Amino acid sequence: MKRIWIITLICCSNFVNAQVNDTGNNVGIGVSNPSEKLDVAGKVKATAFLGEWNGANISDVLFKAADNNDWDNNLYRNGIYRKWGGPNNPFGGSHGTLLHLGQNDGYSFGFQLASDNYKQLKYRGFKSNGQFYAWYDIYHSGNFNKTVLDKNVPNLVYTNQNNNFSSDQSINGKVNITESLGIGTPGSDSWKLAVNGKIRAKEIKVETGWADFVFYDTYMLPSLEEVEDHIKKKGHLKNIPSAEEVEKNGILLGEMNAKLLQKIEELTLYVIAQNKTNKEQQEEITALKKQLQNFIKEE
Fold this sequence. Notes:
This protein is of the alpha+beta class. The protein is built from four helices and 14 strands.
């Protein structure tokens, strides 16, 4: 019986030694020539993993590529990186950022998602003089566009290019705004577009009612005496706002154009009526001249 136990212990010892290789510096499990302190060929199950930063290099957790030639992704304390190391030197070679979690790098929180150093998307936040700001960057080939959200001013967004917030911005495509838009002034529930300043355009289309009703037979054209009386009392044409009203309330462009057209059409009717009167008077004058000439001849 003792012989059986001795043989069993010897077999177990040989089996373990065949699986674990200790070179004095490195330990390999299922690896004949371990290249790291612990080199395991296979799965590792643990309830926790602890790594340390030795002051120069941050500890890694490496994931080997399927071809078993290159070590692909690895973990740092503040993100996930991709390191291109060979099978015998997994920690060597350059690395590129895949996911970066901000820590002691100039902002309070954030992450960077990128396929390489030339295409990046960053979300960041920082606190300055007791005020909180947040922004996101889109970085590509040495240039980036930044959008800053200002918590201290509601609904205020700054955009810039390469930290130049005065640079021009361009939008390629349509912009759909369901509520209101304010340029140089806050948006308003009363207006879809509010602009504090001048507007320059090659053409503006206004869709509103028009003043053709002036030419209807039922339209009551005011007499020139009525027009004159209103001007003397009010200082402006009827249905046209005064200078004080325009300065205070402004005008509705489409409505005012219709009112001005109404006055032009009324003026046209006055001119037509005056032209008829002039023709009648001219005919009477011509007839009187003819009678006068005949009277002179008879004398």
